[in-house]
Amino acid sequence: MDRLPSEQRNERLLTELDHQRLSRWARSQPALQQLLDSAELLPSAELPDDIVSMNSAVQVMEPASGRTQQLTLCYPSDALPEQGRVSVLSPVGLGLLGLAIGQELRWTVGNTRGCLQLQALLYQPETHGDFDR
């Protein structure tokens, strides 16, 4: 199946495994439910190597300041924000899931707005054959 380039897609790409595992939190998280409902699902082995999946390590840049940081997208029980391990249920984590290199994630919490650009995927489990994480 031919896919549009990542910058032209509206939906996110998710693995079937990530979709299944995240579904249990979706009932109480409307934004997560919306993402799961609109995502294009793929078997883990078919996920392109430029897409953020669960347990991926990424480098992001804050466009306004040029500041970069490394983050790891994780499940809520593994989140340690002070160590860069962000929960998929957080605004940043939800924004990262299914994002492609070069895309931006934007969020608003109260009166605070944020923007990060995904610069690099430092580790993606699927690229390393870890389909059962």
Q: Per CATH, which architecture of the domain at 47-128?
A: Roll
User: What is the percentage of strand-forming residues?
Assistant: 25-35%
Question: Major sheet: size, sense and barrel closure?
Answer: 5 strands, mixed
Instruction: List SSEs in N-to-C order.
Output: EHHEEEEHEE
Beta strand count: 7
- The largest sheet has its strands arranged as 5-4-3-7-6
What overall geometry do the principal axes of the alpha carbons give?
globular
Oligomer: single chain
Q: Can you say what the CATH homologous superfamily of the domain at 47-128 is?
A: Transcription elongation factor, GreA/GreB, C-terminal domain
Q: Specify the number of helices.
A: 3
The termini sit apart by: 26 Å
The secondary-structure class comes to: alpha/beta
CATH class of the domain at 47-128: Alpha Beta
- State the share of residues found in helices, binned by percent: 10-25%
Return the CATH topology of the domain at 47-128: Chitinase A, domain 3
- Give the low-confidence spans: 1-9
Report the mean per-residue pLDDT as an integer.
89
Output the radius of gyration.
14 Å
